[in-house]
Amino acid sequence: MSHFNLKSLTFYAVAISSVLLLFKVVTAYGESSLKAPLEIDSNYRLMLSEKLPICDKSGFLLLNLQQSGIYLNGLLVPDNSIKTSKVSKKSSLMGKIKNQQLNLSGTIQKHILCNTPNVPKQTNLIPVKLQIQLVKKGDLIGKINVSDNSKTIGLTAIPQKTKEKSEEPKNH
């Protein structure tokens, strides 16, 4: 019995061609449709276009984002709290990236949103929703909604440079 008859060679040629064609189709689909989300794991300074409706004055907020794939955890704190390290590190916002848009929601204490550190700590939690469009570089543009209010306020998220602890012990 010979393995080189026309019927066997035709079978192997069709099988190998089918595998190569399938590989090419899957590769083309993956390159065009499956892309890793942008890396946005960083600190951002939020500049609001106007003051929040629940606050007497406007102030800057810092948003610390932690990313795992498309899922995000966020910590929203007053601008001056990172310097003093008086804020807990527990994430207060959760969300994910979908269609090049970052969506975060959660609850935040009012004194954090209003940046009033000398006011006695208020325990009332305010629902907050953030939507930010992702772009490849530069500042991020989005909007914030607090207290389930229908009014949204525009914001600009400016990435902050982080100091990495890359000091390694020197070997002599």
UniProtKB/TrEMBL annotation:
Superkingdom field: Bacteria
Protein name (record): Uncharacterized protein
